[in-house]
Amino acid sequence: MIQPTRFSTWQTFGLVLMRLLIGWHFLYEGVTKLYSPSWTAKGYLMSATYMQSFFQWMAGDSMISIIDTLNIGALMVVGVCLIIGFKTRFASVIGIGLLLFYFLAHPPFPGFPQGVTEGSYWMINKNLIEAAALLVVFLFPTSTSFGLERLFAKKEIQSSTT
């Protein structure tokens, strides 16, 4: 049973804000890909600089439509779950997995070619930082303080006290 969080108001506010912002980012990425008929992950996967054979297999003609659909669906599910505060721990795990795949395809390791980036990275990039933030969301769930899971937590608490 998930217990309601016991953080200060400001701690809860900060954690909820982080969860909502990450949720918005995931949902936005999924929706823009869904409504862009020419979008595909094929180019990103084919240009992978690490684990090339694995990512090129994913980009193959027999797999790419499945990969594109799973990517869009996972982005949107993670985004919606984080925003509405429902199954946030599950969404965090899925989000971390996606971000680690993105990270591994183009890791900012010394000696690896860097594609189009917004700056010069060394070992750490936005994907890894957002994955770490999702780990915080997983470890410090706030959905029983602000989210749909709050409705279920109240029912569980009421039924356990009667």
UniProtKB/TrEMBL annotation:
Broad class of where this protein is predominantly found: membrane
Cellular compartments annotated: Membrane
Chain segments annotated as transmembrane: 7-27, 63-83, 90-109, 129-148
Membrane topology, from the record: Multi-pass membrane protein
One CC-aspect GO term: membrane
Keywords from the named record: Membrane, Transmembrane, Transmembrane helix
Keyword match Transmembrane helix: yes
Keyword set includes Transmembrane: yes
Protein name from the UniProt record: DoxX subfamily
Organism phylogeny: Bacteria, Pseudomonadati, Bacteroidota, Cytophagia, Cytophagales
